[in-house]
Amino acid sequence: MATRSYGQYCAVAYALDALGDRWALLVIRELLGGPRRYTDLRDGLPGISTDLLAARLRDLEAAELVRRRALPPPAASTVYELTEDGAAIEPLVIELARWGVRRLPTEPEGEFRCHWIGVWLRSEFVAAAAEEVNLMVDFVVDEDRFRACIDHGTLTFDEHPAGQADIVLTGDAGAITRLGSPDLETRAAVLKRGQVTVDGEPRAIAALARALGLMPAH
């Protein structure tokens, strides 16, 4: 049982013993995208103090949800990554995102990082519909750019993309995030009102719609 525990023999309580502290699930969210250095985590968690981040990482390591790994030269730095048990939390994070998007205010408030949309992109990805798809899709908010790479049934991300993408979606944080709404009418309204512009060949856009469900497929 965790040091800080609800003291209840209940699966929900035991899960919250490991994940219920402030920032814990957001650290997991950051690591769902792959291993990260401490400085990367700080950048992806605006508002967290250095001491609190260090404490949360220690807690998650103690719970065997996160581990440290030293990269070989020339990188020669330490990264944090999810354990198998930590990676198993992804469906929970995805469902929280689906629920939480309905509670977001229309006008963006607070900090935003483009790579956060990777959670809902994973939640909507249909591998079977993307078996013949090979696309690079950029999401642009202000100066922040995030790339989704669809390659014959697989979905990966690039937080520092270079070169030209096949499709570019541009908008403010609120509009881009509402594209992740589970309500198809909400997604369609964002596009119809021009709150997000979509640049790309029509056939590529249709393929994206099928693969990610971001927009009506017609």
Helix content: 25-40%
Q: Number of domains in the coordinates?
A: 2
Give the biggest beta sheet: 5 strands, mixed
Order of helices and strands: HHEHHEEHHHEEEEHHEH
CATH superfamily of the largest domain: SCP2 sterol-binding domain
Overall form:
globular
**CATH architecture designation of the largest domain:** 2-Layer Sandwich
Side by side, the strands of the main sheet go: 6-5-4-7-8
The number of distinct β-strands equals 8
Count of separate DSSP helical elements: 10
Could you walk me through the main structural features you see in this protein, from its secondary elements to its overall organization?
The protein has helices at 11-19, 24-31, 38-44, 50-62, 84-87, 90-100, 118-124, 173-178, 184-192, 202-212; strands at residues 36-37, 66-70, 78-82, 134-141, 144-151, 154-158, 167-171, 196-199. The protein has ten helices and eight strands. The chain has a five-stranded mixed β-sheet with strand order 6-5-4-7-8. It has a three-stranded antiparallel β-sheet with strand order 1-3-2. The model has no long low-confidence stretch (mean pLDDT 91). The protein is globular. The longest helix is centred in the N-terminal third of the chain and has 13 residues, at 50-62. Helix 6 (90-100) crosses helix 7 (118-124). With 218 residues, the protein is an alpha+beta fold. Helix content is 39%, strand content 19%. It has two domains: 11-88, Orthogonal Bundle (Arc Repressor Mutant, subunit A), CATH 1.10.10; 114-212, SCP2 sterol-binding domain (Nonspecific Lipid-transfer Protein, Chain A).
